[in-house]
Amino acid sequence: MEHPHHVVGRVKRVLFSSEEEAHSIVLVAVKEKNFELKETELVIMGTGVGIELGGTYQAFGHLVEHPRFGKQLKADMIRRSVPMTKQAAARFLTNGTFTGIGPKTAKNIVEALGDDAIDVILRDSKALDRVPGLKQKQADVIFSRLATLYGVDQLMLFLSPFDVTPKLAAKIYAAYEGDAMARIQENPYSLMYEVNGIGFKTADQIAAHLGLIGLHPERIAASVMHILEQEAGEGHAFATVESLLERAPRLLGEDPGERLEQAIELLLAEDKVKLEEGCLYLPMIYHAEVRGAKELARVMASGTEQEVDVATVLSAIGTLEERFGMEYAAQQREAIELAVKAPLMVLTGGPGTGKTTVIKGILHALEEIHGWPIEKSAVKAGEVYPYVLAAPTGRAAKRLQEATGVPAMTIHRLLKYDGTNFQMNEDQPITGKVLIVDESSMIDIYLLSSLLRAVPSGMKILFVGDRDQLPSVGPGQVLADLMDTSGIPVVRLNVVHRQAEDSSILRLAHDLKNRTTSSDLLAALPDRRFYSVPPQGAMQGIAGFAAKALEKGYSKFDVQVLAPTYKGQVGIDELNVALQAVYNPPEAKKREVKQGNRTYRRGDKILQLVNNAEENVYNGDIGEIVNIFFAKENVDKVDKIIARFDQTEVEYNRSDWDQFTHAYAITIHKAQGSEFKVVLMPVFYTGAFKNSRNLIYTAVTRAKTSLLLFGDPRAFHKASQEEEPKRRTRLVERLGGKTS
Q1: Which listed site, 16, 382, 457, 618, has its alpha carbon 20 to 30 Å from 37?
Q2: Per-residue confidence (pLDDT) for residue 303, from 0 to 100
Q3: What is the C-alpha separation between 278 and 437, in angstroms, rounded?
Q4: What value, to the nearest 5°, has the Cα angle with vertex 169 and ends 165 and 173?
C-alpha cells in the first residue's frame, strides 16, 4: 500500500502509549516532510512501542483531519528514524558505535545496498552477504548493534511480509526480552512454542525465508507439534505414529519416512512431547489425563458404598412423592437409590427423561435419610453446607439452580479460577458432602483433572449429562469415558415422561438419538417447522421470523439463532449483521463504535468468548451492551464498552473487544448448556455438518417451545446418520479398563 506522506520529527510529548495494543500517539517537532505543512508540530498516531521523549522518529502514512484537533498523520508504524541516503548511512556506520567498521567498509556497504542500506539490513540480515569483502565478524557487529538500537522496529520490519501484525511483533519482542531476532534466526519454529498467535504456517514461511526447508529435523519436529495441536483441537488426547505419518507429508510437501522418528526423539529430549505405548501426547494433555485418572481412582477408592437399608430409601422416595404430588418412574427410583449409596455415579439421559427431577429427588432423599439440610438456614453453626452444585457454563449453572432451588455455580468459579490458575486444589479442597456436576458432556480432560484435584476423599460425586450431545471443545470425552469405565455405576434414563410426550421437538431429538429422521420432519407442527429453502431464502427467512417474534413480544434473549460455523453459507458473521438490523438498527442518538468489520451499538446482544474470573463473566455467557464511552470522555483515553451479564457489569477497553462478539447468532458449541424459548437454525450439508449427529442433536435440544429450521432436509437426514469420529483417549485404560 502506498504511503504518500512521510514525516521525520523529534518527540516533544507522548500523548498516549499502550504496550499491550502497540499503539502510540505522539506530538513531534517536524524536521523533515514530503508535503506542504504550515505548522511546525504535528500529531502522529499509529503502531509504535517504546517511544522515547526527545528521540527522532519517522512515520509513513496518510494525513487526516480530526474534527477537534486538526491535521494528524495516521501512520502504519512509528519507528526510530534511520538514515535515508548513502551519505547519511555511511556517516551513521562510522559514528564509533559500530566497532571495526571504517569509512572504506561503510562505503562498500552503502554502494552495495543503496540509499536505504540501513533499512535493507534491518529487514534482512542476509543482505550483508551481498557486500564484497565484508567479514562475518563485521556483519555480526553491524547486525547486533542495529538490533540494540532498533529492536522492535527491526522485528516489525522483518516480520511484516509474513502477515504478522505490528501488535503481535511487539508481543514477540517482549517474549524474547529483546533477543528476538537472534532467537528467530537460530530457530524460527521456536515462535510456535513460545508465542501465542504464531502457528506452523507462519513459522514455516519465516523458516523458508531463512533457508530452513525440506526435511530439516527442526521442520519435521515443528510439523509433529502442529499435528498434535490439530489432533487436540479435534478432541484427541494423543496422536498415533500412523496419524502422524498420514498428516506430515501434507504439511512438509514430502514423506518424512524414518526421519519422523528422529524428530520425535528430538522433541522427547526437549520434553516437548510425551510418548507412552506408541501414543504421542502434548505434555499438558498427558499430565491432565494421568492426574485425572489418579484422582478419579482415589475418589472411587476412598468413598465406600454406604449401607442404607432398601426400605429406608423406598420410604424416603415415598415421602418425596407425597410432598411433591408425583410418582417417580422405575428408572428414576433406581437412580435415587443408587445415588444415595454409591460414592461415585453417572446419571445420563436425553431431554424429557427427567434428569433434573432425579437430581432434585436425590437431594431431598439425602436430606430425608442423612439429615443433610437443603435449606442453608437449617445448617447448624460450625457445620458446612453439604451440597455443591456446578456446571461448565454460567447459563447451565443458573438452570440447575432454578430447577433444584440449591445454589449452583460454574466449575471455574467453584475452583476459584483467577484467570491463570485454579485456587482450589488438593491443598485447599472444596467443602461439602455431595458434588453434583451437570452438563458433564462439556467437561474436557483439563477441567476434569482440575476439578477432581480439589475433591476431598469421601465426597460423593454425581456426574449428570447426555452422551449424545457434543463432546467437549477441549481434548477428551470425559462423560463417555466415565460411562465406559468398569466400576463406575451408570443409570440411563431413556423413558420420555408424560409432560414431554407432546413435544415434537423432543420426539425429533429422540429420533436423532436413535439415528433416524422423524417422518413428520417437514410437517407444519405447533412447536416445530422445517422450511425447505436455498441459502439466500434461509437468511431472509431467519431475519423475517426474528422480526415476527419481536412483534409478538419475544425479546432478543428469548430467540436464539444457532449455526455451525462463522463463515460460509448462512454463517454466523452474515447472520449477525442481518439480525442486528432487526433487533438493534442504527439511530441518530444511539452510540456505536467500529471494530474491524463489526459495529457495536448500545443495546447489542453479545457473547463472552473467554473466562474472566475477576469480572465474574465466563465463556458462553450472553449479555447486552449498556453503554459506550468514547476515548476523549475518560482518563484512559481509549474507547470503552460497558456490558451487563445478568447482574454483573463488565468494562472493556478497546484492546479487550476480542473477548466478545455479537450474539444474535452463535455457534451450537457455545449454546451448549443453555436453553432458549425459540431456536432458529440454517441446515445445509457443508463441512460443518459432516459427522455431526451430535451437532444437530445438541442444537435441537436447545429449543424449549419453538424450533424453526431453514435449509435442505437431505442435509438434516444425512447428518442424523453420521457419528462424530471416536476420540482417542486412554482414561478408561488408566482406570482399569472398560465395563463388561
Answers
A1: 16
A2: 65
A3: 33
A4: 170
Bridge partners, 678 (sequence order): 559, 706
Angstrom distance (rounded) from CA 670 to CA 619: 8
Give me the residues of the chain with pLDDT under 50, please: 1
Q: What is the dihedral of CA 699, 701, 704, 706, to 10 degrees?
A: 50
CA–CA distance, 207 with 162 (Å, rounded to integer): 11
Residue 621: what are its φ and ψ, rounded to 5°? Answer: -70, 140
Tell how strand 605-608 and strand 598-601 pair up: unpaired
Q: What pLDDT, in 10s, does the model give residues 78-107?
A: 888 888 789 999 999 998 889 999 999 999
Cα separations in angstroms, 71 against 35, 366, 632: 12, 73, 17
Query: Which run of H or of E encompasses 683?
Result: strand 676-683
Q: How far is CA 207 from CA 144, 156, 189, 214, 224, in A?
A: 20, 16, 7, 10, 16
Specify which residues 225 forms β-bridges with. none
Query: For cell 446418520, what's the residue?
Result: 721
Report the DSSP beta bridge partners of residue 30.
9
Extract the C-alpha cell encoding 261: 522418528
d(CA 130, CA 198): 30
Is residue 508 within 8 Å of residue 716, measured between CB atoms? no
**pLDDT score recorded for residue 1:** 47
Q: Which residue has the cell 488408566?
A: 734
Facing residues of 17 across strands? Answer: 24
Q: Which amino acid is at 603?
A: G
Neighbouring CB atoms inside 10 A of 382's CB total 5
- What's the pTM? 0.84
Residue from 342, 461, 412 nearest 621 by CA: 412
Residue 439 neighbours by CB under 8 Å, 6+ apart? 391, 392, 393, 396, 464, 465, 672, 673
Q: b/e for 80-91, b at 16 or more Cβ within 10 A?
A: bbbbbebeebbe
